[in-house]
Amino acid sequence: MYVSHQFLKVLLFLIYPILLFVSVHFGNRNEFSVILVVAFVLPLYFYFLSDILPLFGNRFYLFLLYGIFLRVVVIGSPAVWSDDIYRYLFDVKLFLNGISPYHHTPREFFEFGNALNLGLDFLFLKMNSPDYYSVYPLLLQIFYSLGTLLGSIFGNSLVGIQILFVVVESINLALIRKLYPHSENKSYWLYFGNPIVIIEGVSQMHPEVLVVTGFLFIFILRSNWFHLLSFFILTQLKLNLFLFVFGFRGDRRFWIRLGLVLIVSLLIWKLTVFSDLLLQGSSGIGLFFHSFRFAGILEPFFYFILSIFEAEYLSGVISFSILGFVLIYLFKEKYFYRLTMMNSFLVLYSLFLLFSPVIHPWYWIPWILFMVEKKNAIKILSFIVFLAFLSYGMYVYYEFVYIHWLVSILVLGLYGKKQINYLRKTT
Predict the structure, then answer these.
(1) Beta carbons of 357 and 316 less than 8 angstroms apart
(2) By CB distance 3.0 to 4.6 Å, which of 236, 264, 271, 301 could disulfide with 139?
(3) What is the distance between the alpha carbons of residues 260 and 73, in angstroms, rounded to a whole number?
């Protein structure tokens, strides 16, 4: 009886990578039935496997290898859940040929005849943003260029980039162990086995796993100089990561140095992505504030109110403005000084997700890192996996945005209420 029970546990651990393989090779974000199956099955497996992790015992190296194996399984998968990678590759092709990807849209490159000899026709047809200016910073251009060069060995750029992501993720898993050396496998599982991290990070090649590496260096390395360097790298990966400046603490000298880091980082953004502020505002990052909406949590409230006055295009601006006021108030009240750095970053990123008009599934990856070691986190993270994959239903039915919004409000609202009550008791 004991042998058969152990065999069943092993079987479940073997089925999980098969499910991941099938999801990334045969998934379809344009088929609602497929989305529903993935949204229900993957979080269920993620949740129930957490209860049989004692199978690994004290052999952490086996557990680590299993986490890496889950990521290796998805190498070679196509971009069935997100087409962002095709814009990355388009920019990289220009970048590797000494052409700035920031001055013209992809359509303009073709109209000028500048892209015809670079073999960019396939990428142009596949991408989702041919009329937008590139919003990807210089450091990401370099990273995806390295992945593309590695992919030339295999004759497939996607494979090269995915291999590079698996290497980065292997480092992340080892660093999480170093950050929490005495934790149980169940805590590590929150990140090690999370299907959002594996599918959206490695398979679909979104850069949030690089963001995780930057945060891990901040948490592990104690020197202020390393904190400044890591924060600089983070701000060169994603624009929204500038908000984590509120989570730091230090003396006057540290804040002066941090201010210099911010100035240098912003200068690089100005010379690259924001080389033309007007164009970025109208056909680039600016669309994020007033036109592009996907799975927001609080922003729909402002959208509905503003629509009465035919000013709904301002919903993103209003939402982020309120976020700014909240952050300034909390910083002024020294709220973040009462928390550990990890908890400060968790609150900061939770506030960003709360007010952002756009929450793609891969946006949750840093949040998942911040939740490692949190009590009973497996439940909320399983719901997050469900909500994240369920959000793809908006690609099929636009009206589905209202159903997803209500589910998100109910699930996250209940969890948020419990966390607020917990923080009141501990601060």
Answers:
(1) yes
(2) 236
(3) 43
Calpha distance 29→206 (Å, rounded): 16
> Following CA atoms 239, 395, 40, 64 in sequence, which dihedral angle do they give, to the nearest 10 degrees?
-40
- Give me the residues paired with residue 388 across strands: none
Other CB atoms within 10 A of residue 40 CB: 14
Report d(CA 132, CA 284) in Å as an integer: 5
Structure confidence by residue, pLDDT tens digits, 198-222: 999 999 999 999 999 999 999 999 8
Residue located via tokens 């599934």: 361
CB 262, CB 272: distance < 8 Å: no
pLDDT digits (tens, 9 = 90+) for 255-313: 999 999 999 999 999 999 999 888 888 788 887 777 778 989 999 999 989 999 988 88
Give the pair of three-digit tokens for residue 289: 């504030």
pLDDT (tens digit per residue) in 3-47: 566 777 788 899 999 999 999 999 999 999 999 999 999 999 999
Q: Provide φ and ψ at 126, rounded to 5°.
A: -85, -30
Residue 349 carries which side chain, given as an amino acid letter? Y
Q: With contact defined as beta carbons under 8 Å apart, do 280 and 103 qualify? A: no
* Least confident residue range of 155-169, 271-285, 354-368: 271-285
Could you give the angle at the alpha carbon of 231 between the alpha carbons of 230 and 234, nearest 5°?
A: 90
Name every residue whose Cβ is closer than 8 Å to that of residue 34 and which is 6 or more positions away in sequence.
26, 27, 28
Query: H/E/C letters for each residue in 110-129?
Result: HHCCCCHHHCCHHHHHHCCC
Residue type at 181? P
